[in-house]
Amino acid sequence: MATTDVNTADTARAVRTIDGVVDIIASTAPEIRTGLPGRRVTAEDENPSGETQMAADVFADDLLCERIGALDGVGEYASEERPESVDVGTGRLSVAVDPLDGSSNLKPNNTMGTIFAVYDGPLPAHGRDLVAAGYVLYGPVMTMIVARNGTVDEYVLHDDASHELVREDVSLPDEGSVYGFGGRVPDWTDDFEAFAREVEQDASRKLRYGGSMIGDVNQILTYGGIFAYPTLESAPEGKLRVQFEGYPIGYVIETAGGATSDGTKSLLDVDKDGLHARTPMYVGNTELVAKLEAALD
Ligand code: FBP
């Protein structure tokens, strides 16, 4: 077979696999949500980052691993809840998920999300290997954001496992009107605190912070502005994970016309070893992220 034929076959298979991952995320999310009420308790284990796992984290991870792992074209599955990635097939694409981002919000019944990233290559992968990424937001309405082929679309997810495209080509509004910064304020660096105070002084902006990155990032995608989970004095690498949070959210926000940073460069250019490596995260309108980088310089 000629090389071009092989490439065409590979590309067609990859497109089918990516569509398959998106369909599985969309059809599994209603089940994850339905399974939450009895699972607002801690599980017996900690996750690989040493954080308390909720029974819901484990439940969502098991469902996604089983279904995504059975897809043709997926070679590896990894999640924030497992120490190692799992070999699930012979495909060249790898899928990394945060099954329930913000699961500490389960107790107060607040927003949470499911994040997914599809990489062309083995895990841990690089941000520039991403071929699709997105997230589900469990809010009053269940929505899903998907970035692939250079555009970002929004879907509404229904309880019967169907999904409906509601917005095509989503982009960040030019004038950002909200901001949300994680971590304890006394734990922020002086430079970040000075930047935060400057952002607060602008009367056109309002604080919107809910403690679940997906809820907070979706506010930025909707209204524009800036979200940060910064470097902390006690945690120079910040809290959020590169493979499961930094890269996929970097991909979504940059595909939607925004900017992202780890403090000095795009989140997609972060170079870290290890499946569970962490990174500071700053995402939002280009002008605000540029100001942030200048403030931290
Ligand atoms: P999990 O994936 O373990 O839920 O942690 C991620 C997260 O909940 C983010 O959604 C959020 O931005 C951050 O941690 C909040 O952490 P903290 O409350 O410790 O500042």
TrEMBL record:
<feature type="binding site">
    <location>
        <begin position="101"/>
        <end position="104"/>
    </location>
    <ligand>
        <name>substrate</name>
    </ligand>
</feature>
<comment type="similarity">
    <text>Belongs to the FBPase class 1 family.</text>
</comment>
<feature type="binding site">
    <location>
        <position position="245"/>
    </location>
    <ligand>
        <name>Mg(2+) 2</name>
    </ligand>
</feature>
<protein>
    <recommendedName>
        <fullName>Fructose-1,6-bisphosphatase class 1</fullName>
        <ecNumber>3.1.3.11</ecNumber>
    </recommendedName>
</protein>
<feature type="binding site">
    <location>
        <position position="98"/>
    </location>
    <ligand>
        <name>Mg(2+) 1</name>
    </ligand>
</feature>
<dbReference type="Pfam" id="PF18913">
    <property type="entry name" value="FBPase_C"/>
</dbReference>
<comment type="subunit">
    <text>Homotetramer.</text>
</comment>
<dbReference type="GO" id="GO:0006094">
    <property type="term" value="P:gluconeogenesis"/>
</dbReference>
<keyword id="KW-0460">Magnesium</keyword>
<dbReference type="GO" id="GO:0005737">
    <property type="term" value="C:cytoplasm"/>
</dbReference>
<keyword id="KW-0119">Carbohydrate metabolism</keyword>
<feature type="domain" description="Fructose-1-6-bisphosphatase class 1 C-terminal">
    <location>
        <begin position="172"/>
        <end position="296"/>
    </location>
</feature>
<feature type="domain" description="Fructose-1-6-bisphosphatase class I N-terminal">
    <location>
        <begin position="43"/>
        <end position="160"/>
    </location>
</feature>
<dbReference type="GO" id="GO:0006002">
    <property type="term" value="P:fructose 6-phosphate metabolic process"/>
</dbReference>
<feature type="binding site">
    <location>
        <position position="80"/>
    </location>
    <ligand>
        <name>Mg(2+) 1</name>
    </ligand>
</feature>
<keyword id="KW-0479">Metal-binding</keyword>
<feature type="binding site">
    <location>
        <position position="101"/>
    </location>
    <ligand>
        <name>Mg(2+) 2</name>
    </ligand>
</feature>
<dbReference type="Pfam" id="PF00316">
    <property type="entry name" value="FBPase"/>
</dbReference>
<keyword id="KW-0963">Cytoplasm</keyword>
<dbReference type="GO" id="GO:0030388">
    <property type="term" value="P:fructose 1,6-bisphosphate metabolic process"/>
</dbReference>
<comment type="pathway">
    <text>Carbohydrate biosynthesis; gluconeogenesis.</text>
</comment>
<dbReference type="GO" id="GO:0042132">
    <property type="term" value="F:fructose 1,6-bisphosphate 1-phosphatase activity"/>
</dbReference>
<feature type="binding site">
    <location>
        <position position="209"/>
    </location>
    <ligand>
        <name>substrate</name>
    </ligand>
</feature>
<dbReference type="InterPro" id="IPR044015">
    <property type="entry name" value="FBPase_C_dom"/>
</dbReference>
<feature type="binding site">
    <location>
        <position position="239"/>
    </location>
    <ligand>
        <name>substrate</name>
    </ligand>
</feature>
<dbReference type="GO" id="GO:0000287">
    <property type="term" value="F:magnesium ion binding"/>
</dbReference>
<feature type="binding site">
    <location>
        <position position="100"/>
    </location>
    <ligand>
        <name>Mg(2+) 1</name>
    </ligand>
</feature>
<dbReference type="GO" id="GO:0005986">
    <property type="term" value="P:sucrose biosynthetic process"/>
</dbReference>
<dbReference type="InterPro" id="IPR000146">
    <property type="entry name" value="FBPase_class-1"/>
</dbReference>
<keyword id="KW-0378">Hydrolase</keyword>
<feature type="binding site">
    <location>
        <position position="98"/>
    </location>
    <ligand>
        <name>Mg(2+) 2</name>
    </ligand>
</feature>
<dbReference type="GO" id="GO:0006000">
    <property type="term" value="P:fructose metabolic process"/>
</dbReference>
<dbReference type="InterPro" id="IPR023079">
    <property type="entry name" value="SBPase"/>
</dbReference>
<dbReference type="InterPro" id="IPR033391">
    <property type="entry name" value="FBPase_N"/>
</dbReference>
